[in-house]
């Protein structure tokens, strides 16, 4: 193996931690780091998943010149949990060659060490190699020769591309979604027998909240309730006529409306529409006109 490049920029700070199986090795490596004047924040000993995650979290939120050191029985678990955080590239290294490859190819910024299978002397050699090997340096994987231009370009792009993995899926999942929508995800809504085209799912009762859907073209005849109710439109478009107050409200996604108790109101749905509604008390509905009368009135209002 080629000698490490001792002129490579070293990290300014190392954040270290271990589980009980890796504590002795971690302590030896922390002492070594301090002896060569590298600042160390030693997080001590915890379970492998929590210490790996904590080191990963801190490296993820730190500057590029801060790296991590983790140790457990195999060096695998702590590395896996550290890698849950964006911008963290933890590598489990059992030999100096592993460390050199991890730095050269993957720009590893967290070193994971096996407390059960690595001696202190070997671990120090692995750590020194990892500290002193720059990204894209010659390494055993390149037969210790400089990478050609094509591979160098690939290595540069790979680090940027790794950081993007998963982000598109997260954006798709979060786009157009909210906590209210998640309340009824994969739930069946029950038809509202009193009004064609409508369906509803009670989310909770007293105070009551529900998700309501209406098909495009549906009309709610003039009606009133013994309760006032708040609603927020999540999908679609609708108009509400408060006939008691002589007001009309045209609502689309994100719009909020409160209708006071007893107010007579009529509704028209222009698109498939879904909304969240909340009220005090139990569901009731008293009609003030029939459906055909309502449809005729809506046509006159909307021409």
TrEMBL record:
Source domain of life: Eukaryota
Q: What is this protein called?
A: Uncharacterized protein
Q: Which organism is it from?
A: Pistacia integerrima
